[in-house]
Structures are given as structure tokens and as C-alpha cells.
Design goal:
There is one protein chain. The chain is an alpha/beta fold. The strands form five sheets. It has an eleven-stranded mixed β-sheet, sandwiched between helices. It has a six-stranded mixed β-sheet with strand order 19-20-24-21-22-23, sandwiched between helices. The radius of gyration is 24 Å and the shape is globular. 50% of the residues are buried.
């Protein structure tokens, strides 16, 4: 793929251009290691590395163009320099232009929030496909170009990958796409240059403060997504969340709301709950869904709202919603021959753990015990560890603290942080600790009797444990089936 430099520059409105614009560019990249003759290198100031520092190493690689925020002291002969106010934003706009602006050729819906992004985005994608449409998905679990799976490496990919995948979706004939929009991606302008048909806000609770430092900065990153939506897009917010309405304060998009508790454009209501499904109503129409828990009811109400805003017929939407199935590793139930139910869920924030445990208690009442197995990831927000342990202990009959993805931290140090949250004698009395995740799950199974529910939280769909930079195969679902002796 090649482009005329002037065609690319039309997307960025540069502050200054030094050198000819009428030339061919053979490659667009922000990775200096990939620069070859004729390439355009975009020097992005990252979290840990500044792309400008790599410019001197490109002297003998003969790039066609270099995009900078600050002009270097020495300019290479034969290279066109383009100065822009923000090279991260420029990269997004250039990536869109490079792939012929694919987001304008399909209806792209972005989903942001702390919890529920994966489920909501995935279900919008599934709703499109159940309606006979070709569609794409960009999510934490897996990316899809219609039915073709493309492994996901991060919640929201870099701009070049996003636009490459969207381009492939267009080429495949997709008319719709859904994507998770993480706070990191919004803050780092990875979604710059994209044209969204709509946006959905799920909720906001404590997470990623290791990156954003403050809750206000975290909120601002989420809100910036809605601020960038065009006037002909829709913006749907959860007005039951305390910052739900804040998200839409400055958006130009059509403002819509959803709720389980109050009047809203899209009103969901739980009528009857079971571990394997829920009878719900959406704007007064009843439908049985294969999901459990209030948090899932919120996700489904958001999906209902987005589906209506995408212009799909209401009767068709309700029929498709009854056909939706849970996302891998999200409230995934596994039943043992002895009548014990294990639930594997990705819940890895205090709020998510509360949501899942309250959903379980709402269904089983006092007819069984809840045994929770949970850990916390290493090299991430340490402040949430004791909070998560305490919330889990308060809502469980037995709690087993264990290892998650320790990354480069010592598992025992992470567990020490979690134990601070259960120092109260009453909570400590029903808390066990086992750093070996497999043995912790086995311990929970040994404690459980007929009618009990084991929640295994934190990893969900992940099929690995990351220890000292190495990913070792580990799948909670496989371990449960092995312990339950389910073939």
C-alpha cells in the first residue's frame, strides 16, 4: 500500500512542512525499528518513551517523511518534516487516512466505562450478526472481522491496528462494528481520527489509578470519548451511575439514557432471576435472557438502547436479545455432578466483585454458601487490593485469597496487601490464603457441598498466568472442569 504524502497531510493540518509534499510514502509507522526507505515515521511522545529520541537513528534509512511535535536541530537531506501540535492525534488521523477512513464506511459503536465494556461491545456485535448483518468487533477477549478471529493484545489496539482491522471489516462487507474504548486509549488518542456512529457509557468505579493517578483524571479520559463524538452520532449513558450525566455534558451527539431504577429513554427491569438466566423487560416488553445479575441487566439495557439507535426494528431486537449468550469468562457457570455450581468471572475491580457476588446472593438467597476465590494483578493499582478483599469477604461465606497475574511482583506481597482488607477478626475467621491458584480452587471445591456456589474471580477468559514476564498456561475453566471431573 502506498500513498501520496500530500493526500496524507490533508488529514492533519500541519503547523509547518519542510520539504516536498508531492512524494510517495510506502509505509506509515510510529515504530522506528520498522522504518525503511520511503516510510513515514511519526514521533509519538509515549508514557515511557519519546519517539523523537529515535529520529537520529533514522539517518541512513532514508525515510520519506518524519512527523514531529518539535523540529529536530539537524534535518536529514531528502526527508520531508511535518510539524504538528500533537503527534499522537496526528498518528490516529494519518492511520485513518492511510486505510481510506474505514470508520466512515460502517456504523462504529464505542463502549467505555470501568465494567461491562467487553460484554456490551460483544453483544452489540452479536446483535448485528443475529440480524443477518456482517459485523466486526474490537475487544479485550478477541477481535473479529465478521466471523474471522484475530487475537487481541490489549483492550483498545494502537491506531494503525484499529484502522487496519476496520479496513478489513469494510473489505469483508461489514456494515457494523463495536469496540471497547479504554481510558488508556482515550488518553493516548488511539481513537483519534475515527468516526463513531454512537457511544455507550456503562459505569465508573475505581480502576487504573496506577496510570491516571486520580479519579478525576480517569473520569476525564472516559469523558473525552463523548466529547469527540460527531453531531449525527448517539451517546447513551447509564443515568443510575453517579457520573452518568457528566459524561454527556459537552457532547454534540444525540443524548440518550438508560436505567434500571428511574425514568429513562431505555428502561430495563428484572422480573425474575436464576443462575442460568433472567426474565427482564425493556421499555415494558418482556423477554427471557441467558444472563444473570443486575450488572448484566445494565449491560443488556445498554445493548437494547444501542440496537434501537442503530435503527433496528424493536420486535427483531427483542427476539435477538433472547438468543444472546454470555461472553467467555463472564459469569460462566459450570455445574458439578454433586450439585455445586462454579462461576468463572473476569471481575477484577472491587465494584465488579460486588456486582457478581450480589447477583449470586440474589439468586440463591440463604439456600447455599458462597465460596469466593480471588486475587489481584501485580504491577497494577495497589490501592484496590484491600478494598477488593474486604468487599469479597463481606459478601462470601468463605473467602480464599490467591494469586492472579503477579507479573513482576511477589505473590506473597500482593496477598499481604489484600489481607489488610480482611484484618477484622470476623472477616479473617472466614478467610483462607493459598498463593497457588490451582490449589486454591481445589480447596474451594473441597469446602463446597450441594447447593453451594464457588466464584472464581479475576481472570475470566484468560488462559494464562503471567509470572516474571512469562505467560504460563492456566485457565480457570479448565481447572474447574478437571476438579469436577467433567471429562
Amino acid at each position: 500500500m502506498q500513498h501520496n504524502l500530500q493526500h496524507l497531510l490533508d488529514a492533519v493540518n500541519p503547523v509547518k512542512v519542510i520539504g516536498p509534499a508531492d512524494r510517495t510514502v510506502s509505509l506509515l509507522t510510529d515504530d522506528s525499528r520498522k522504518v525503511t526507505e520511503g516510510a513515514m515515521f511519526v514521533a509519538v511522545r509515549g508514557v515511557t518513551v519519546d519517539g523523537h529520541s529515535f529520529i537520529p537513528s533514522l539517518a541512513d534509512r532514508h525515510p520519506a517523511a518524519i512527523v514531529v511535535e518539535t523540529m529536530p536541530d539537524t534535518l536529514f537531506d531528502g526527508v520531508t518534516y511535518i510539524q504538528v501540535p500533537d503527534s499522537a492525534i496526528a498518528l490516529g488521523c494519518l492511520a485513518s487516512q492511510w486505510y481510506d477512513n474505514p470508520s466512515r464506511k460502517l456504523k462504529l459503536v464505542g463502549v467505555t466505562g470501568t465494567n461491562g465494556k467487553t460484554t456490551t461491545a460483544t453483544l452489540i456485535y452479536e446483535m448485528a450478526r443475529l440480524g443477518g448483518h456482517k459485523a466486526g468487533l474490537l475487544s479485550t477477549v478477541c477481535n473479529y472481522v465478521d466471523t474471522r478471529a484475530v487475537p487481541a493484545r490489549q483492550t483498545t489496539p494502537d491506531p494503525l491496528t484499529i484502522n487496519m482491522l476496520l479496513h478489513e471489516m469494510v473489505e469483508e462487507g461489514c456494515g457494523y462494528a463495536a469496540m471497547e474504548v479504554s481510558s488508556h486509549a482515550a488518553d493516548q488518542h488511539r481513537i483519534a481520527g475515527l468516526t463513531f456512529a454512537g457511544g455507550v457509557f456503562t459505569n465508573l468505579t475505581r480502576d487504573h489509578l496506577d496510570y491516571h493517578k486520580t479519579f478525576d483524571a480517569y473520569l476525564a479520559a472516559k469523558k473525552s470519548f463523548f466529547d469527540m463524538l460527531p453531531a449525527d452520532a448517539f451517546a447513551i449513558t447509564n443515568i443510575d451511575d453517579k457520573v452518568g450525566e457528566v459524561m454527556l455534558q459537552n457532547t454534540r451527539a444525540k443524548k440518550m439514557s438508560y436505567s434500571l431504577r428511574s425514568m429513562a429513554d431505555f428502561r430495563g427491569r428484572i422480573i425474575e432471576s436464576h443462575l442460568d438466566g433472567t426474565l427482564m423487560s425493556f421499555n415494558g416488553d418482556e423477554v427471557h435472557v441467558l444472563f444473570t445479575g443486575r450488572f448484566n441487566a445494565y449491560n443488556l439495557t445498554a445493548v437494547y438502547g444501542a440496537s434501537i439507535m442503530l435503527g433496528w426494528d424493536k420486535e427483531s431486537v427483542l427476539r435477538r436479545m433472547s438468543m444472546l449468550v454470555p461472553v467467555a469468562g463472564r459469569f460462566q457457570t459450570i455445574h458439578s455432578p454433586s450439585g455445586v455450581t462454579a462461576i468463572v468471572d473476569y471481575a477484577h475491580t472491587p465494584d465488579a466483585v460486588v456486582n457478581v457476588l450480589e447477583a449470586i446472593r440474589e439468586v440463591i438467597g440463604t439456600s447455599g454458601n458462597i465460596i469466593t476465590v480471588v486475587g489481584a494483578g501485580g504491577n497494577r493499582d495497589k490501592g484496590k487490593r484491600p478494598i477488593m478483599a474486604r468487599e469479597a469477604a463481606l459478601r462470601s461465606d468463605r473467602l480464599i485469597l490467591t494469586s492472579d497475574n503477579p507479573r513482576f511482583e511477589e505473590p506473597d506481597d500482593i496477598l499481604a496487601d489484600m489481607r489488610e482488607g480482611v484484618a477484622d477478626p470476623e472477616l479473617a475467621a472466614r478467610t483462607l490464603v493459598n498463593a497457588d491458584r490451582r490449589e486454591a480452587i481445589r480447596m474451594a471445591a473441597a469446602l463446597a457441598v450441594k447447593g453451594d456456589v464457588i466464584l472464581i474471580a479475576g481472570k475470566g477468559h484468560e488462559d494464562y498466568q503471567e509470572i516474571k514476564g512469562v505467560k504460563h498456561h492456566f485457565d480457570d475453566r479448565e481447572v474447574v472442569k478437571e476438579i469436577f471431573q467433567l471429562g
